Each structure stands twice: as structure tokens, then as C-alpha cells.
Amino acid sequence: MSGDAEPVVRLRGVGKVYGTGPSAVTALRDLDHDFARGSFTAVMGRSGSGKTTLLQCAAGLTRPTSGSVSVGGADLSTLGEAELSGMRGLRIGFVFQAFNLLPALTARENIELPLRLAGRPPAPGRVDELVDRMGIAGHVHRRPHELSGGQQQRAAICRALVAGPEVVFADEPTGNLDTGSGREILAVLRFVVDAMGQTVIMVTHDPAVASRADRVLLLSDGRLVDIVESPTAEKIVTGLEARR
Ligand SMILES: Nc1ncnc2c1ncn2[C@@H]1O[C@H](COP(=O)(O)OP(=O)(O)OP(=O)(O)O)[C@@H](O)[C@H]1O
């Protein structure tokens, strides 16, 4: 990883306040960070520390109140709603705790959906190669309810990757899985970074899950208070406890 390469996601002075007046809540305060291409970052912090807000601002789902966010060199504040929505469809991939696959579609149709919605039919072989690499090639003709949680999440990861995005955001991707399936999904995300060169930014509550990332950002009260490099669960717990 080269230190001076252009970051995939750049946050500068990002602040977010929900509401106005006495009921206003400051969720993020003056946050700066560069997410390097091909890196795997976990975001941790106690409940209410701003993790989801950070993810949503970085992914263009919510506009920050102050500061700037750029993804793949594009300053999101300069984009209109339609451009932002197009960017989220193709240049940003999402993986959710609850998988969020459409129940009426097969796994393959779910995976192809972002491209079809954008009017870009999937390149021949692209989906086959992806589902093969993600280990669900034999299951893609099934609907989500006919798949295990781990298989559904693999399909969701394929859907996030199908358009070749700049970055994949994952919000508690193992939160609905048992420990074994969760471990497998983390191995898949590591593969996505190490073998496919993708960038993954993941929110989690679990130090064991976060320890699979290259680094962990610790948030407290909307501030980025520490970065744990080459994390172990122990180092993360120590960092979190130091901030209580
Ligand atoms: N839409 C909203 N309107 C008002 N306040 C909000 C909104 N979304 C979040 N907040 C507040 O902003 C702060 C940060 O919330 P956020 O969801 O980003 O934290 P989090 O670290 O992801 O929490 P958790 O771990 O519980 O999911 C909290 O005080 C929360 O109550």
C-alpha cells in the first residue's frame, strides 16, 4: 500500500448534526480520515458514538452538515441527488446485517440487479466468475429463503461487487450470523481485499470481527479518537476501555 496514492474515500472536517435548536444532536465532529485503496478498515465505538453516521456520510447516503467527503476523487457535495444515487448504485457497494436481498428474486437476479437497474446488462461470465469466487456457484438459482444466512451474505457481497465499485461499505455484516458463518464471511471480505484489491469499510461492535481488518478507527462521542493498526481483539478492547 503506497502512502501517497490517492485515497478511495477522503473525509475532511466532516461534521453531522441531526435536527436543530435544543433537540439538535451532534453525531460527528470534525472528522478527518483517508481510506487507502485496497485497505480493510473497521469502525468501532460504543452505541451512539457515530459509527453508522460516519458510514452513511462516507457512502453518500446522508449529507454531512460540515466538511467534505470524496469517493474515487469525486467530491460528493458537488453532486446532485440523481448523480449521487447513480454513484451509490454502481461505484459504491453495500453489505447489510440483514442481507437485504429481494425475496422474490433468485440469488443470481439479486446479484445482477444493480447492473440491470443502471441499464447495464452484466458482462458474460462476470457473474459466474464472481459467484464461483464467493463459493455459491451451485446455489444462485435459489431464492434467499432457500439459502443459509452465510450463503445469503455471500450473495449480498456478490451484489455489492458486481459493478466493480470503488469501495464496499459493510454495516455489521456478521451481526445476523452464528460464529462459524461470521468467520467465513470475514474470510470472504479479507479475500475481497487481498485477492481482488477492493476497499472495505466495515462497522462492527465485535472486537474479534474488527481484528480481521487492517486497522480499526475508534469513535467516541462523534470524534475519531484512536486508530489501532494491525489490530488484535486485545488491542481493540484496551483502546475502547481507555476511552470510556
Ligand atoms: N436520524 C437521526 N435523527 C436524530 N438523531 C440521530 C439520527 N441518527 C442518529 N442520531 C443520533 O446521532 C448519534 C450517533 O448515532 P449513530 O447511529 O451514528 O451511532 P452508532 O455508533 O452507529 O450507534 P449504534 O452502535 O447504537 O448503532 C446518536 O446520539 C443518535 O441518537
UniProtKB/TrEMBL annotation:
Keywords: ATP-binding, Nucleotide-binding, Transport. It comes from Nonomuraea deserti. Residues 9-240 form the ABC transporter domain. It comes from the Bacteria. This is ABC transporter ATP-binding protein. Signal peptide: none annotated. GO terms for cellular component: membrane protein complex; plasma membrane. One of its GO terms (molecular function) is ATP binding.
